[in-house]
Automatic annotation (TrEMBL):
Residue intervals of the SsuA/THI5-like domain: 85-270
Family matches, as InterPro entries: SsuA/THI5
Signal peptide segment: 1-21
SUPFAM superfamilies: NosL/MerB-like, Periplasmic binding protein-like II
UniProt keyword list: Signal
Official protein name in the record: ABC transporter substrate-binding protein
rRNA processing keyword on record: no
Cited PANTHER family: ABC TRANSPORTER SUBSTRATE-BINDING PROTEIN, ALIPHATIC SULFONATES-BINDING PROTEIN-RELATED
């Protein structure tokens, strides 16, 4: 079973290279085409993909170079990072964005094929690991990771979501290779398998867990932030491209910084733009990319993220997807340092925004924040017909979740939300008098 999963992952990495025509950074000297691979529905890469493209920031930066050349950008959209890596090592994509585990595979494949790549910036991150979630069917009786013993679990081998699954099972005392039947599937296939009942659980990255939960097709079993290990998405560039066209790469990173500022300054509008481009509900995009969303955006390559990459190598090695990887050699922040200038040092040490409860009223162009989940519930109770979405942070991990999908605990006068049932039960066990209540009960208590 494990060999089949590894073989399937390997096939993805070696996918045919004929899907994309044209040459990366091609041109006749006066006209240069820059090819960017991105993942529109992996919404923690939007500042290097979907949002960046919709804003036209990269094209503006290229036009401002004033070097006598005409630049064209070829945007190529993919479902995962594996085909982007395949195209990069074939010299057909110049710049790509993907999650942390695919980034490591990108580094390994580039070195193996003599086509080295480098991590040049970060898009979205969560320092606790909240970008990945394990979900089950809405009517599932599974309530804890230990309930997965002997069950079929869908994930994408070689992804950060698989890394979360492996680590979570190990911490729960389960052997990921023996105690579950792992189904190596693309996210959309896994989502269908969960709905059809051919998978008992699904471990995936953004925006799949939030999307399925919002649609009523899943409920959370495990919040990846319980691992307290950083997860992130980033930008990788071919070494030869960066060396030959450093000003173009710097233009891209300046444009990424502009898109990041736009997302942080206009989170609702940014969510609407991404929703329009991807077909995802804006409410789901905002869950991850909003003002207090699960993901924080800035391009700086923080030391915590580099350390996390180094820890991730062991997971990929155990799955026989890579050997040793020189992470320090893969990371190259000189271009983003130059692009961001004096602000880079400040961004390196900047802390993510504090967790907060938010309501998105219908017809509003801005959300409303509340100091406590109870205050949010009181507002929702009084405006139930006027709420587009309501979000609350997990009481222990800070992971934002939909208020009506959270597990609620009443502890005296406090009303506390949790992403997953196991963490709620742990809290109840440690606090006498606390108990799990329904969302309806929580609303009534807060009103």
């Amino acid at each position: 079973m494990k060999n089949k999963a590894v073989a399937a992952a390997a096939l993805l990495l070696l996918a045919p290279l004929t899907a994309c025509g044209g040459n990366a950074a091609a041109g006749d000297g006066s006209t240069v085409t820059v090819t960017v691979g991105y993942q529109s529905r992996t919404i923690n890469t939007v500042t290097a993909g979907t949002l960046l493209r919709s804003l036209g920031s990269f094209e503006k930066e290229l036009n401002a170079l004033g070097d006598g050349r005409t630049y064209k950008v070829d945007w190529q959209d993919y479902a995962t990072g594996a085909p982007i890596t395949a195209q990069m090592t074939a010299g057909k994509i110049d710049i790509g964005s993907m999650g942390d585990f695919p980034l490591l595979i990108n580094a390994a494949r580039g070195k193996q094929l003599g086509k080295p790549t480098h991590l040049v910036s970060v898009t979205g991150y969560n320092l606790r690991g909240g970008l990945n979630t394990i979900v089950t069917a809405p009517d599932s009786k599974l309530a804890a990771l230990t309930d997965l013993r002997g069950k079929k679990v869908s994930t994408s081998v070689g992804s950060a979501a698989d890394g979360t699954l492996v680590r979570a099972l190990q911490r729960a005392g389960l052997d990921p290779d023996k105690d579950i039947e792992k189904l190596n599937q693309q996210p959309a296939v896994g989502a269908s398998a969960l709905s059809a009942g051919s998978a008992d659980a699904l471990s995936q990255f953004v925006a799949w867990p939030g999307l399925l939960t919002y649609q009523g097709k899943a409920k959370a079993l495990y919040d990846g932030a319980e691992l307290n290990l950083p997860t992130f998405h980033g930008v990788t560039a071919r070494e030869d491209f960066a060396r030959q066209r450093p000003t173009v790469l710097e233009a891209f990173l300046k444009a990424q910084a502009e898109a990041t500022d736009y997302l942080n300054d206009h989170p609702v509008d940014a969510a609407e733009k991404v929703a329009k481009a991807t077909g995802l509900p804006a409410e789901v995009v905002y869950l991850y990319n909003g003002a207090h969303g699960i993901s924080t955006f800035d391009p700086a390559i923080k030391p915590q993220l580099v350390s996390a990459l180094k820890d991730d190598v062991a997971i990929l090695k155990s799955a026989k997807l890579t050997g040793d990887i020189d992470v320090d050699a893969f990371v190259d922040d000189r271009y983003v340092r130059k692009a961001l200038g004096t602000s880079y040092a400040e961004q390196l040490t900047a802390a993510p925004p504090a967790a907060a409860s938010e309501v998105w009223p219908k017809g509003a162009s801005a959300t409303r924040a509340f100091k406590t989940p109870a205050e949010l519930l009181a507002y929702v109770s009084a405006h139930q017909d006027g709420i587009r979405a309501a979000y609350v942070p997990d009481a222990t991990t800070g992971t934002l979740w939909f208020a009506d999908k959270a597990v609620w605990v009443a502890d005296g006068d406090k009303l506390l939300p949790f992403v997953a049932p196991a963490t709620a039960k742990t809290y109840v066990a440690e606090h006498g008098g606390a108990r799990v209540v329904t969302y309806a009960d929580a609303l009534e208590r807060a009103s």
